[in-house]
Automatic annotation (TrEMBL):
Domain of life assignment: Bacteria
Family the entry assigns: Belongs to the LysR transcriptional regulatory family.
Swiss-Prot/TrEMBL keywords: DNA-binding, Transcription, Transcription regulation
Short name of any one Pfam family annotated for the protein: LysR_substrate
Name recorded for this polypeptide: DNA-binding transcriptional regulator, LysR family
Top-level taxonomy: Bacteria, Bacillati, Bacillota, Bacilli, Bacillales
Sequence ranges assigned to domain HTH lysR-type in this UniProt record: 1-58
GO cellular component terms given for this protein: cytosol
Record has Aminoacyl-tRNA synthetase as a keyword: no
Record has Protein transport as a keyword: no
NCBIfam families named in the record: trans_act_CidR (NF047520)
InterPro entries tied to this protein: HTH-type_LysR_regulators, LysR_HTH_N, LysR_subst-bd, WH-like_DNA-bd_sf, WH_DNA-bd_sf
MF terms in GO: DNA binding; DNA-binding transcription factor activity
Amino acid sequence: MDIRHLQYFLEVARHNSFTKAAQALYITQPTISKMVRNLEEEIGVELFERVGKRVSLTDAGWVLFSQAEVMVKSFENMTVHINELMDLKRGRLRIGLPPMVGASFFPQLIGQFCDQYPGIRLELFEAGSNKVEADVDAGILDCGVILLPTREGVFDYYSFVNENIMLVVHPSHPFADRSEVPFSDLEGERFLLFHEDFALHNRIVDECVRAGFHPHVVYKSSQWDFLSEMVAAHIGITLLPETICSELDTERFRILPLVNSSLKWHLGMIWRKNAYQSFAMREWIRFSQESLPARYTAK
């Protein structure tokens, strides 16, 4: 049984006539008669009582009629919804964004996307790169922004930012008058870092170990502006991407490049490799990749 059997059956029942039903459906009468006969053979009961050219529903026909209306209507609704998805009139996307990334790059992009596709619902989840990557892998998120590199066997991605991590100190700090600071000179400093959920936390700790020391971490936060205010309060130093540093008041902070450092803020949008991609998801990847600024300033 396919949906056409039910559609043809309903049309005959509504018109009480194979001839009128065939005319309404723009098909031949033998075709609709054969379809109804096949349906009766499949179910094993007669659906119509035939008296001359006029037909009426049997008891079994009335049972099928009430159920067939629901099934055909559901099928029609499903078809409409699928067509709307294909036309990007509806859909849902779950996107993970680290706090630094969301505020710096995505408000305007998200606004433009929502204006162009008002029927697509964007659900934004704020979390560090490690959490975003794990949730995309688990299917909790459709895609998300992380600090690259990522597992290329698991994820597809595109990169949109690759810039240096800068040292941020108080204007009275001994480093403040320098033009640059070797990373090894940070030994003994009080570090203000992001929480462990943020990939940048582990990258900084690893860089310290490569430079021959373990960082003395005095505070952790999930907010870059809070970390910078802690620097302003002369509590310690922090390391932030160039994009974030450009928003800091140079009267209150000294921003210095680091020498002999491999730290980079290399961002990418990831999604699970070989997973099903909705029409909305495909359009988001295309739209965001074309709209996000490709910035590669890291040396």
